[in-house]
């Protein structure tokens, strides 16, 4: 229990029956939650304990991907229609940001009903169809689950403010004043001035780590924990392959702490993991914890048992440092953050990304580094958002094909599972004139036709405008045109994904940085030995500089082996006693397989 | 071992049969500095067998003396005889992978550079961990450290003045090629800094000590190896290239701005100074001490003026600035690095390391270990930023008739920005801004520039414009202090 905070709460309900009893006593409207048994279940894929380590993830915003019913809003059926494209590209797992019923004041992260699909997106049945069709193509689907808070329009919150003594009275964090937990930082500094907001209906303040329309759930109430785990079970029963747990460090609040990464939060995650392991083997939990790697590894759980919290967690600080390293023409921003990244449990995996639906977050950099990133990548103040830069990959890199390829090669070869952001595979642009982070959420550009092939509705009805500028506009940048040209960025991305899949070392292998005398060159070896003793060794060499560079690498451990370049299969000179000399073009990179001697 | 000048060979000199082979082999070694000089003779100064009887290969340690015909004409003051250390492997049929290191034959045996042999480097590492004594060599493990037990060492390629072997990216053993009586300051200062718990140097793991002329001599030292590192010079070059490739951006506007690193280097050097002061003490510099330093600087000026007309023309003006050492008022001296430049700093994923505390190679050991002002190191770093800024230009100018004043101005902006960032970092760590002692700093900087002019004139004429430009700048009032 969260003693003292909720001033006017009676005994907390501890199980569902009790909830109903209390509900009836007070005449309140406890909703009968739908059950998974009310729906068809999707076909399932064979259980594979390591799929998430090898997978290439692809983040899709449902509302921006494909509109099947001409309402200007992308929907689940539209996405189902595009599964063949994603299968062709080589995507292993689609990550969908929240598609739940929501007033959409925070892109759907303000959930109004955990068991209902946003009507614009379709129905639970549409989701099951998507899942079924994705599984038919070997593609898995995960989605966001926001556990920390709900929309203020959620039935639970409406009941909680109306009836402090009712079944939901203790579902949120209430207080008579706004002074507690003052050590917790404010995250959305652009819009919020306090983590407390006064509710005139209940006459108390409620706690919110994010927007004031997103009250935090009270996880000290066992009924909240139960309700959340039941929400997980609902989707897992339908066949979903896992969840990205949004805003996971903030579940609990404690005086005298910053309210992040508390032991109680970890204990609850262990409970969720146990449900997954016991009831839904092969499904995954991915933590969104925008923290330093040393704190994030806690979200993998106990290394002694191979990890017993989340299977995956995003590596947030790596991403800005990739951008920094290339601008500085120095490998050290990347070397530094990887050296600071602790080992992770055996069954854990990082999720790494270049861009996503949020701003390019600069929370995990120093003040100096942040100034630097703003100066280099957000020359227009409109490009900034909160503590970050709201731009897509291609405009960030000034549409430089060499840099786009280098960045993607890094994403596909650094330790972790890569998460692509929809549209970046064709080099889509952004629209900094749209509010908040909508600038990077514009409709997918499929064709040069009306509405970029995203929808056949009247153009004025589109949820967000299509990018129309001369460089990134849909007539220049679209899937159809790039599908027809094998030299396109799209085809290049597809080939690289395919190469990645041929080498388990990329997903499963160890990581060893080689160093080397040239500070502009980042070189590393990924190495994996499978159960049959087959050794897969991949050497990656990346030139962070825009100028051609030589590098001498110490490859003596692979003496007499022949490195084979992976995109073309060309054998390079055998490794000898002396340092191995390579020359790279500006922003160039190489991937080599180093085969066992006897395989040559 | 009795010492006799070659070519008169002493009976019983175990290297007698090898003298001709050594004379041919030495000039091919990167660590042999006098490639252009005329070798007059070679003698064996000392020789001992290090391996125990029956061991294969036989390992020998030797010091040879090389005398030069042109010693008298050498303007940098090279002495008549230089002494070098050798570790030799001796075996009738050595393994094929040491073939490239063969020096010659002695009877039935092939004699080769022992550092190339993984068996020998592995044995040396083991002997250090055992604190063993073999012949005249004492192998010493650094207390409270643990050298990694890894396999054979592998010679490091591309080294300049010494020879090193690397043990599995974990440790590095450096054999000091120049044989000098006394404790090598590189070992001495690494030991002192290590015992201060310094995070600014690669931790010392052990050493090999020997004897020369009846005095102790440092043979080799073993340190943790910073495998993933790049030196400050190459990083600064990347930054300068990035700047000069832009049409008109200023150094703080280009992506490759180095000021953040320069600031960190300043803090690192300052931390080393504080640790050296804590470990080995500081002394107030009295008037006599200051005069000694001034005399030393003026003497060096005379040598440079004699060899370089550009220096001779400015001789009096330079001397005026150098006298700043005595007129600047009281200061303190301590042990310093003595030969600092961007190439002596290594960027690792966790920060910067300072390496190579041997001191300026042209000085005697007594001069190298004499306490001096930390300003000498600071000035040397400021000089190094100048070098980094203008090096690219000097490469281009060799083909151009006139230096491009626009490029020169931008290179100067890079130097100013990074010199300033270095001083900021230094001041942040010590609480004392070197720019608050402008006379002292300027004297040390000019002293260094004069030495550089002489050095470049003799060794790298294409680079001489860099110190000459700085020298002129330091002699004009605008050159006072840092922006």
From TrEMBL, chain A:
Family indicated by similarity: Belongs to the glycosyl hydrolase 13 family. TreS subfamily.
Region (Disordered): 1-35
Known catalytic reactions: D-maltose = alpha,alpha-trehalose
Record CDD domains: AmyAc_TreS (cd11334)
Species name: Actinomycetospora flava
GO molecular function: maltose alpha-D-glucosyltransferase activity
Broad EC category: isomerase
Protein name: maltose alpha-D-glucosyltransferase
Pfam families recorded: Alpha-amylase, Malt_amylase_C
Polar residues composition-biased segments: 1-11
Keywords carried by this UniProt record: Calcium, Isomerase, Metal-binding
EC number in record: 5.4.99.16
Domain Glycosyl hydrolase family 13 catalytic: 59-461
UniProtKB/TrEMBL annotation, chain B:
Pathway, per record: Glycan biosynthesis; glycogen biosynthesis
Record flagged with keyword DNA damage: no
Protein keywords: ATP-binding, Carbohydrate metabolism, Glycogen biosynthesis, Glycogen metabolism, Kinase, Nucleotide-binding, Transferase
Domain Maltokinase N-terminal cap stretches: 25-117
EC top class named in words: transferase
InterPro entries: Kinase-like_dom_sf, Mak_N_cap
Record Pfam families: Mak_N_cap (PF18085)
Domain of life of the native organism: Bacteria
Entry's EC annotation: 2.7.1.175
SUPFAM superfamilies associated with the record: Protein kinase-like (PK-like)
Claim: Kinase is one of the keywords in the record: yes
Transmembrane residue ranges: none
Catalyzed reactions: D-maltose + ATP = alpha-maltose 1-phosphate + ADP + H(+)
Family, similarity comment: Belongs to the aminoglycoside phosphotransferase family.
Self-association state and partner proteins as the record states: Monomer.
Protein name: Maltokinase
Lineage, top ranks: Bacteria, Bacillati, Actinomycetota, Actinomycetes, Pseudonocardiales
